[in-house]
């Protein structure tokens, strides 16, 4: 039954995508983040839904009379250069076959991001993508939070198998990044019941992060909580909820969770932590020997260990030039969010845009912190956040320029001599 429903939803959306290509961006975001076909049990698990949606989106753009333009931002150029460099490193990969498989996934993700940048042209469309991301991953947050509460946190929370977020560490990072978006939607809700429901979903999502038993996600949660307090427009409510969350932690986190988190400060005796350090050293060695790095999956096939870090993953697979492009994207995205917030702070009518930029920045803080210990450098959610910031900036910048225009003073009449 699940297979039939998912297939009908995707296939049924294709005519709407041909007429309005932005619908394809929404469907691609839903498929990429939620992976609903992974929740089925039959034929739908193997159907190329993402390809069908992307093909319909491109066809809809070709038959449309509208002119599509990318945002004229430096991040777009850097993203294109990063993609080209990854393609070059794939041609020089130490393990060509697994590198080619991973490259086929990465360039399709970037194609979806390109279409997102081209087709997201209004504030309502940005809001639609925020809702899509929040609901797609918030589903696992609410489900995982309830699972953690009902079972006392003994059984770990995992994501849908076969995708970017199948493992406990990966779903922990994804849920961490989702909570600020749900919080933003709660702040904007006009109906009281919707606001309370979204606040509850955000809290359950954070409970699910604890339920993953991911140490990297826990560190990201600490940093993100601090950023939330700094960036949020109303600081009292986040502070109160954080206090309630901390006091209630012993009620849904078992002793095994506390023991696992304690190993963060005593990593020398933890085999998993030492394996990460060995992988990072191996990444530095590969990048020092090869300008283009070792290509995708070089650590997995070369040392039988995952990179366990977005930074060392890029370093090992694409060398120091690739890492420089990746870090430049991160830095510019962070500065873009700060720039939007500053501009919106000067205009009370743009408070909503400033709040969205702040929560996107909080989500980035979670990714950058937890990502230091998790290998999700090509996670489509990060690039979606980048695209949302660029599209939001394109909406805010013209208004900011208009507000700076000072009208000329009316000419004063010459005095009449008596």
Structure characterization notes:
It is a single chain. The protein has helices at 2-19, 22-34, 49-63, 74-91, 96-119, 123-151, 168-188, 192-211, 215-231, 236-252, 255-262, 271-289, 298-303, 310-345, 351-370, 380-403. The protein is built from 16 helices and no strands. The chain has two domains: 1-68, no CATH class; 72-396, no CATH class. By secondary structure, the chain is mostly helical.
Summarize this structure as a short list of keywords or feature phrases.
mainly alpha, disordered C terminus, single chain, 73% helix
Gist of the model:
By secondary structure, the protein is mainly alpha-helical. It has helices at 2-19, 22-34, 49-63, 74-91, 96-119, 123-151, 168-188, 192-211, 215-231, 236-252, 255-262, 271-289, 298-303, 310-345, 351-370, 380-403.
What's the structural blueprint in terms of helices and strands?
Elements: H1 2-19, H2 22-34, H3 49-63, H4 74-91, H5 96-119, H6 123-151, H7 168-188, H8 192-211, H9 215-231, H10 236-252, H11 255-262, H12 271-289, H13 298-303, H14 310-345, H15 351-370, H16 380-403
Distance between the termini: 95 Å
Taking all Cα atoms into account, the compactness measure Rg is: 23 Å
Shape: globular
Which sequence of SSEs, written as H and E, runs from N to C? HHHHHHHHHHHHHHHH
């Amino acid at each position: 039954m699940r297979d039939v429903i998912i297939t009908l939803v995707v296939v049924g959306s294709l005519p709407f995508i041909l007429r309005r290509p932005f619908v394809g961006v929404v469907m691609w975001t839903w498929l990429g983040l939620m992976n609903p076909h992974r929740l089925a049990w039959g034929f739908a698990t193997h159907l190329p839904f993402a390809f069908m949606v992307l093909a319909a989106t491109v066809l809809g753009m070709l038959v449309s009379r509208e002119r599509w333009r990318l945002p004229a931002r430096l991040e777009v150029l850097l993203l294109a250069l990063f993609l080209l460099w990854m393609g070059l490193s794939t041609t020089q990969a130490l393990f060509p076959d697994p590198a080619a498989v991973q490259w086929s996934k990465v360039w399709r993700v970037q194609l979806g991001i390109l279409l997102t940048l081209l087709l997201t042209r209004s504030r309502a469309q940005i809001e639609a993508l925020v809702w899509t991301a929040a609901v797609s991953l918030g589903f696992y947050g609410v489900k995982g939070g309830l699972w953690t509460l009902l079972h006392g946190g003994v059984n770990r929370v995992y994501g849908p198998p076969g995708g970017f977020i199948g493992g406990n560490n990966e779903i922990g990072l994804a849920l961490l990044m989702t909570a600020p978006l749900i919080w933003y939607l709660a702040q904007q809700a006009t109906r009281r019941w919707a606001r309370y429901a979204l606040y509850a979903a955000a809290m359950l999502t954070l409970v699910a992060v604890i339920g993953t038993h991911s140490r990297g996600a826990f560190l990201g949660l600490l940093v993100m909580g601090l950023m939330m307090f700094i960036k949020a427009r109303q600081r009292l409510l986040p502070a109160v909820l954080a206090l309630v969350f901390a006091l209630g932690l012993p009620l849904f986190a078992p002793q095994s969770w506390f023991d696992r988190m304690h190993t963060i400060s005593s990593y020398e005796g933890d085999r998993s932590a030492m394996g990460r350090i060995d992988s990072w050293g191996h990444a530095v060695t590969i990048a020092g020997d090869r300008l283009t790095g070792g290509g995708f999956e070089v650590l997995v096939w070369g040392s039988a260990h995952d990179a366990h870090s977005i930074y060392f993953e890029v370093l090992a697979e694409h060398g120091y030039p690739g890492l420089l492009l990746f870090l430049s994207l991160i830095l510019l995205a962070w500065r873009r969010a700060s720039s939007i917030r500053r501009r919106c702070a000067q205009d009370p009518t743009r408070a909503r845009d400033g709040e969205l930029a702040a929560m996107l920045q909080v989500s980035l803080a979670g990714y950058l912190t937890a990502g230091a210990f998790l290998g999700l450098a090509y996670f489509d959610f990060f690039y979606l956040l980048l695209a949302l910031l660029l599209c939001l900036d394109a909406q805010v910048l013209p208004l900011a320029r208009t507000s700076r225009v000072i009208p000329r003073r009316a000419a004063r009449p010459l005095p009449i001599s008596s």
